[in-house]
Amino acid sequence: MTTRRHVPDETLMDVVDDAATPAAQAHVAACAECRGRVEEAREGLALSREAEIPEPSPLYWQAFRRQVGRRVETESRRASWWRLVPIAAAAAGLIAMVPILHAPAPAPVGPSLPAWSALPPVDQDPGLAVLQGFASTEGDLVATHEGRGVTEYIATLSDDESRALADVLQDRIEKGKL
Amino acid sequence: MTMTAETLAPLLILTAAREENRPSWPRDDDRQAVEACRRGEREAFDRLVERYQRNVYRLCYRYVNNHQDANDMAQEVFLKAYKALGRFRGDSSFSTWLYRIAVNTCLNFRAARRPEGAELPEGLADGAPGMTERIERDQQARRVREAVSRLPEKQRATLILKVYHDLTHGEVAAILGSSVGTVKANLFHAMGNLRKLLEAEGGE
Prior knowledge:
Chain A is 62% helix and 0% strand.
């Protein structure tokens, strides 16, 4: 007795659907086991079609759409809020950075002469010694411009004014008048 | 059997249900509706809900066999679809994509099964012959639905999509992420097992 090969289950499904090849149909016709399985599947298919489900009333579908619409609306609002979170976080970070970015420059310690290349080095600048002498005796001098002390006044001079004052002082030192 | 409004009504409902299982609107309409949704047109999503609410509800009902859970799950399906619209690439049809969400939602559903509907009072069983037949038909339908719910997950999903939603093997394969051959094999097993379950339930 020869062993007959059975057709795959997917092919048996084609037989159920009346969409199988002639060869497959011939096998099923000749094979009791496959034929029995096909008949069993056909009975199951017929039974499955008896499982009607209760149909809701037409009013239900309107209510269903309204419920879905409300949930979608809530979800949209929630999604919009969450989209703002990273933006708000970035804005907060920028706002926190403002005081740092716009921090006032630290106040200078004591008067500082404007730097320009025409000034000699410190150890070779007799005018600087004169100015420093002025600074040490500021308290004895009459307040000069607008009630400010000498050191404050010197700090406000422009480059040209500072150079001119240094020249005058240097001249007077050389002539022995200071 | 006398054809009355009472006997005709279920047939008309079933016929309408089967016709509605195969939407006749062109696929382009769905694509346009999705694009409109992405632009923020909320009413476009409402149109999609209106198109597919029956199919989604029925699919969910087949899994849970009660209206309340089916209603909750169907709403969940549409909410998930709305949230995932941005990820819909159009590789498949919108209906296939929606069915996929529905099947996954049903498979993940873990709510406790609600008690089945109360038994009808005995008095009604003694009513007119039409009423008796309807009751018997409803009871048989319930038995079949319960048997379907006891099938293995893949077989159940395949049978529901193929038999009750009249989808092609290819469409079912796309939804379940299977091959057409696997779909056919699962369906074949599902039908054979369904028959065995019902036979064992009503066996002598």
